[in-house]
Amino acid sequence: MSAIENVSRRWFLKGMASAGALVLGAYCAPEMLWGHEFGDLRTDDGRTDADKATLHPNVFVGVETDGTVWIVAHRSEMGTVIRTSLPMVLADELDADWKRVKIDQAIGDPRYGDQNTDGSHSIRSFFDVVRLSGATARLMLIQAAAQQWGVPVSECQTDLHVVVHSSSGRRLGYGELATAASKLPVPKKDEVQLKPKSAWRYIGKGMTSYDLTDLVTGKAVYGMDVHLEGMLYASIEHPPVLGGKIKTVDNAEALKVAGVSQTVVIDPFKPPPAFQPLGGVAVLADSTWAVFQGRKKLKIDWDSGPNETYDSDLYKKELQQGARTPAKVIRSQGDVDKAFASTAQTFEADYYVPLLAHAPMEPMVALAEFKDGKVHAWVPTQNPQAVQAIVSSELGIRKEDVICHVTLLGGGFGRKSKPDYVAEAAVLSHKVGRPVKVVWTREDDIQFDYYNAVAAMYMKAALDSKGKPVAWLQRSVFPPITSIFDVNAVYGDPPHLAQGWTDMPYDIPNLRIENGPAKAHVRIGWLRSVANIYHGFAIQTFSDELAHRAKRDPADYLLDLIGHPRTLNFNGVDYPNYGAAYDTYPWETGRLRRVTEMVVEKSGWGKRKLGKGAGLGIAAHRSFLTYVATVVEVEVNDDGDIRIPRVDTVVDAGLVVNPEVTIAQFEGAAVFGTSVARSGEITAKNGVIEQSNFDSYPVARIDEAPFQTNVYLIESDAPPAGVGEPGVPPFIPALCNAIYVATGKRVRELPLARTNFGKQS
Amino acid sequence: MAKMIQFKVNGVAHSFDDDPDTPLLWYLRDTLGLTGTKFGCGVGLCGACTIHKNGDAIRACITPMSSLGGAEIRTIEDIGANGLHPVQKMWMQFNVPQCGYCQSGQIMQAIALLKSKPKPTDQDIDDGMAANICRCGTYQRIRAAIKAAAKELA
After folding, report:
1. Which fold has domain A5-211?
2. Chain B within 8 Å of A668 (Cβ-Cβ)?
3. CA–CA separation, A17 vs A4, rounded Å?
4. Smallest CA–CA separation between A528 and chain B, in Å?
């Protein structure tokens, strides 16, 4: 948002505003779904009852005459508590009483700026914006009070929802001032003063989820829970192979299933797939169960196309061969080849991480209604503006005519930033003339994901007499995410190479970083931590291997590799730095050192007595501008079963606005990392994904997850950085490094389920 | 016409004479609008649809309507309808939920666990809760909340 303007009067003129309300920010009417009871969400003008109530909180903040403060959450809630944390920052600058704040979820609208809730950047991208929004409202309330009292603004201040004139002791509540304040011009940005840190009420102290009561009583409304009168349910048989087309379809048996009304063919996508529907045959019925039953009765003959030859075993060999073949140079310093030729001792290793599925607990689901040239969609999406874009292009309507209501998300992890499933619902509603709710099964979710890329990494180091690297070569090969937008894309793009690869932080005189080509045969996409998962695994495991070869303590050795505190220089290197300005968020090795030193201390590294078959492992990684070091304790019994009794993680994420929920993100990251490491593997045979549900794609359960994860946040005044994703990348190699100590077996391929750690092996 | 099945949901009498193979999950969600019980896997692997049948925690997604004759079904909507249950209170105190989608099922499972094991050990919690997946990874807080709720209920 570049400008804040007072839209109260404009809205009044349009006859849409509730009189006397102070409304600030961007222009647009967010729809309100939260807390809506089961029933008809549709109203004549497309807005809900709650939205029609006292005020239309069409912007970041609004103050009602009764003192209610509306704050708009324009980011999606999938468990990071961002729907609470950003409004909490605004409330702090407004000096609002949190008990009188109501949060309104925004629809998709570019006037909010970026709404794609991924990349762990909601706080860092919007911290300043929402602070300014809150502080501007606060100043206007102060100005209104000063005017009323005939005193200078400088003599007035706020005290939790009240403006106070200190010398006379006069007080006026925000609600009493809202009407007068709404008539004032909006102060310019440089007139607005932000609170000093010492005056923060909420920022840095935190707030529990606004939705907490609803979340424990079953009242929270997810995409799976929305309902419109007259809607049809739909379940879609997708082409089993990416890019497949229907040869013949026989729907006779499907139509005999009670409740099934029709089947609809959805056209295959035109490559590249992007967020288009995959195509296939939809079964429509009056209940979810009926569509699932009907779908089983479809008889479809597919033309699977060129991806039919995709076989994960063969592909793995190709990738590993690619990782051993000279490739595109991403970053280079010194002369690696010369150093390798002239150094007696070299060491090399190959690493491999398979395709990974997101598997959020709520499968893909979308409710859409095409009516009078417009689409209303109620969906669990991380990216409502991408919903507008894809629905608009699929139906040939304007983006503004796609109204995307954002529900709570039953997990996202990056999957729900790709709205193919919403496009399906919109296309179907357009075809059948009724609201359609598309429900994916778990099998659909796992077999038709945008997978985290399968990756092979080759690492080689030349070592001096003390085992310290004097030359370092690292080469990765993986099908890039850009392949979903460009059929010819085979190389990693700079933003994803920058995820823990281009920015390998060690101070080594001869360094070369390469990336080789790989063609995608499935849809590749962002998954929590993305490329940092495989890059971090390779670098942090290789570092540990070198430490053990040098007979050094791995933590000491890691600190030596990180080297002295310095700011990395990426001159001449394409290093996007997670889209952040490098001056504001430089890569500081001193911060990685600090978290590493602290995790050594907090974990009792080198001091703890561990039993037989137990071990500690360490790893450190910067991602999403946050520095994290993790120590994992593992126990491996004689049968090769793995337990994780304890994890210690130290986090430097700059300023943390909501510490408790941040800690929870790192606890969750350890569990997510456990799932990746233990059993995360998607494979294809003849182009068809072999896994389908939680039996063939297991994720960590309570008895497999770390028993105790201790998270320590570094107190920092550095600008806020990411917290949702950075916990995963160091956890995985720390676990594998611990397994090496416990068993003497080195993990170079994930998942662990592929390796037998038992005595027999 | 299928045989009429009589049962109660959250204390209210209902009858059903449609396809007897219909899973209880879809009856609760699509017919009664009780959407607190979630769809996660459809085959009894994740526990998101956990409800109580005659006090026992079961998976609604693999419970056919034909098995409900005379049953008392209880869903998350009825837990805490007259004031929060101690398990729900502790879920809030320990800030258990992240996305929250699995938590109805976790809470239903935890209540059943505490009925059979009023003072659960860590092993009891592992055994009792391992069938309920939380992809956000809130297990550590679930464990703490169950222990605290056990004290509250004692």
Report:
1. Aldehyde Oxidoreductase; domain 4 (3.30.365)
2. yes
3. 17
4. 11
How far is the alpha carbon of B109 from chain A, nearest alpha carbon, in Å? 13
CA A332/CA A327 separation, integer angstroms: 12
Number of domains in chain B: 2
| pLDDT, tens only, A25-74 | 332 222 323 223 333 343 333 342 223 323 233 368 889 899 999 888 99
Q: Please determine, for residue A22, whether its predicted confidence score (pLDDT) is greater than 60.
A: no
Beta-carbon count within 10 A of B15 CB: 8
CA separation for the pair A117, A271 (Å, rounded)? 26
Partner residue facing B36 (CB), from A208, A218, A671: A218
Number of CB atoms found within 10 A of residue B95's CB: 19
Window 40-99 of B: residues touching A by CB (8 A cutoff) are 40-43, 45-46, 48, 75-77, 79-80, 84, 88, 91-92, 95-99
> From CA A604, how far away is CA A614, in angstroms rounded?
14
Q: What is the pLDDT of residues A521-571, one digit of tens each?
A: 999 999 999 999 999 999 999 999 999 999 999 999 999 999 999 999 999
Residues B112 and B128 in one domain: yes
Beta bridge partners of A436: A232, A368
Structure tokens belonging to residue B72: 């008392």
Which pLDDT belongs to residue A8?
A: 37
Chain A residues close to B35, C-beta within 8 Å: 38, 218, 221, 224-225, 227
Q: What is the pTM of this model?
A: 0.94
Tokens of A470: 């004097």
Phi, psi of B2 (to 5 degrees): -70, 165
- The confidence score (pLDDT) of residue B2 equals 61
Query: Which class does domain A312-356+450-754 fall in?
Result: alpha beta
Interchain proximity B26–A212, CB inside 8 Å: no
Tokens of B124: 């009891």
To test the contact with chain A by mutation, choose from B135, B138, B143 the residue with the greatest count of A C-beta atoms within 10 A, namely B135
* Sign of the Cα pseudo-torsion (A363, A364, A369, A375, in order): positive
CB A631 within 8 A of CB A647: yes
CB of A212 within 8 Å of a chain B CB? The answer is yes
Distance CA B89, CA B71 (A): 28
Q: Are residues B104 and B128 in the same domain?
A: yes
Do the chains contact at B136 and A411, CB–CB below 8 Å? Answer: yes
Spatial distance between the Cα atoms of A124 and A126, rounded to a whole number of angstroms: 6
Element (H, E) at A456: strand A455-463
Buried b / exposed e across A477-505, counting CB within 10 Å, b at 16+?
bbbbbbbbeeeebbbbbebbbbbbbbbbb
CATH 3.30.365.10 given to domain A223-305+364-439: yes
Give the range of the structural domain holding residue B96, as residue numbers without chain letter: 86-153
Q: Please judge whether A79 and B136 are an interchain contact, meaning their C-beta atoms are less than 8 angstroms apart.
A: yes
Cα–Cα distance for residue pair A532/A512, rounded to 1 Å: 18
Q: How far apart are CA A359 and CA A363, in angstroms?
A: 7
| B91 and B74 within one domain | no
Do residues B69 and B92 both lie within one domain? no
